[in-house]
Amino acid sequence: MPSPQEELLEIAKRRLYGNYRPAPVVFVRGQGCELFDANDQRYLDLCAGVAVCSVGHAHPALVKTIAEQAGRLMHVSNYFYNDQAIRLADELCRRTGFAQAFLCNSGTEANEALLKLARRHFYGLGQTGRARVIAFDNAFHGRSLGAVSMTGTPKYREGFGVPGNVTHVPYGDVEAVKKAMGPDVAAVIAEPIQGEGGVFPAPAGFFASLRALCDEHGALFLIDEVQTGIGRTGRFLALEKDGVRPDAIALAKGLGGGFPVGAMLTTEKVANALPPGTHGSTFGGNPLACATALSVLRIVDDEKLVEGARTKGAALLRMLDELVREFPNACEAARGEGLLVGLLLREGFVARDVLPLIQREGVLLIAAGDRVIRFAPPLVVTEAQLAEGVAALRRVVAALDAARRGAA
Ligand SMILES: *Cc1c(COP(=O)(O)O)cnc(C)c1O
């Protein structure tokens, strides 16, 4: 007799479109940092659905908010106001110092809005020749044609007839940005730490230099905080660390704690870039999504998750540094900020191929770039859970290290 999970996997193979390559596990429920599959096997979740489930699975306060809001009001369209969208916009702006919020449903949509904002801003000023965007190699901004045009991985762009006018330069390379700058540049867009690209931090002073270059050339400076925002790096926004103010930012992932919600936050300077009728979203700003995000923000405050991300992240980095020292044939470095941390494997290892070995130990991690094992746990994770994850990873890495030594 096939197990419940095998039965579901059989249907999945036939019926789900084949654009993903999921592990053969079907999850049916979660609690905190634990997930349970259709055969009721437990996994420790240290990736939080790619940095999404910031307050863990089935957080009681979040569940209560969603149930209550669903029973009150779910959707009204943007032809009217709703109380939750107004409150969320106000809350996000008060926390970050931005002036206004455009609410949407995903990171892709938030970045698409940034791109349209930048081009429409200069169009509105009569500077129609200013439409080029500078983005970075290995950047990830999403998969719609606009967002993917800024994404820096050629494989994600090939074959789609992606619209152009985006120049990609090496991340962290100020000189390359300087060279790519010109009077036709509308904006520079960057992630504070490249998440998908390999948990790759920028060199100190990089963002201050970008801000200065944008000011000098009259271009907008845009930041994609989709993965790094909402406390992930031990600050509410990762860029707070650099003391630099972008003209607009994109948020999503952790903002909804698992519910699809995104936002573009803007400064006064670009308040007139997208006048009525130029941009919108049917679902964007719906009261259910906004109430959910408000609840996530309250939990982040109540449980001091931003500060927690900093201290627990530091502990995690120390544990991974130890792995690097202990198994130098398999591990090259540990890096990251707060609870966005990566273990860089030695050349020749493929992170995606190592993940099933870690899963066999009952721990869920994800890859970033080709060689990085990424930790992006729920912010509610405990140090004991992080230690459990690292212990599982240690067993896997020890075997890889021994195999590499044997081969040498
Ligand atoms: C995940 C991600 C996106 C895309 O977000 P979606 O919600 O998948 O559309 C954009 N930018 C960054 C930095 C991301 O990590």
UniProtKB/TrEMBL annotation:
<keyword id="KW-0032">Aminotransferase</keyword>
<dbReference type="InterPro" id="IPR015421">
    <property type="entry name" value="PyrdxlP-dep_Trfase_major"/>
</dbReference>
<feature type="binding site">
    <location>
        <position position="140"/>
    </location>
    <ligand>
        <name>pyridoxal 5'-phosphate</name>
    </ligand>
</feature>
<comment type="pathway">
    <text>Amino-acid biosynthesis; L-arginine biosynthesis; N(2)-acetyl-L-ornithine from L-glutamate: step 4/4.</text>
</comment>
<dbReference type="InterPro" id="IPR050103">
    <property type="entry name" value="Class-III_PLP-dep_AT"/>
</dbReference>
<dbReference type="InterPro" id="IPR005814">
    <property type="entry name" value="Aminotrans_3"/>
</dbReference>
<feature type="binding site">
    <location>
        <begin position="107"/>
        <end position="108"/>
    </location>
    <ligand>
        <name>pyridoxal 5'-phosphate</name>
    </ligand>
</feature>
<dbReference type="InterPro" id="IPR015422">
    <property type="entry name" value="PyrdxlP-dep_Trfase_small"/>
</dbReference>
<feature type="binding site">
    <location>
        <position position="281"/>
    </location>
    <ligand>
        <name>N(2)-acetyl-L-ornithine</name>
    </ligand>
</feature>
<dbReference type="InterPro" id="IPR049704">
    <property type="entry name" value="Aminotrans_3_PPA_site"/>
</dbReference>
<dbReference type="InterPro" id="IPR004636">
    <property type="entry name" value="AcOrn/SuccOrn_fam"/>
</dbReference>
<keyword id="KW-0808">Transferase</keyword>
<dbReference type="Pfam" id="PF00202">
    <property type="entry name" value="Aminotran_3"/>
</dbReference>
<dbReference type="InterPro" id="IPR015424">
    <property type="entry name" value="PyrdxlP-dep_Trfase"/>
</dbReference>
<feature type="binding site">
    <location>
        <position position="143"/>
    </location>
    <ligand>
        <name>N(2)-acetyl-L-ornithine</name>
    </ligand>
</feature>
<keyword id="KW-0963">Cytoplasm</keyword>
<keyword id="KW-0028">Amino-acid biosynthesis</keyword>
<keyword id="KW-0055">Arginine biosynthesis</keyword>
<protein>
    <recommendedName>
        <fullName>Acetylornithine aminotransferase</fullName>
        <ecNumber>2.6.1.11</ecNumber>
    </recommendedName>
</protein>
<dbReference type="GO" id="GO:0008483">
    <property type="term" value="F:transaminase activity"/>
</dbReference>
<comment type="similarity">
    <text>Belongs to the class-III pyridoxal-phosphate-dependent aminotransferase family. ArgD subfamily.</text>
</comment>
<feature type="binding site">
    <location>
        <begin position="224"/>
        <end position="227"/>
    </location>
    <ligand>
        <name>pyridoxal 5'-phosphate</name>
    </ligand>
</feature>
<keyword id="KW-0663">Pyridoxal phosphate</keyword>
<feature type="modified residue" description="N6-(pyridoxal phosphate)lysine">
    <location>
        <position position="253"/>
    </location>
</feature>
<comment type="subunit">
    <text>Homodimer.</text>
</comment>
<feature type="binding site">
    <location>
        <position position="282"/>
    </location>
    <ligand>
        <name>pyridoxal 5'-phosphate</name>
    </ligand>
</feature>
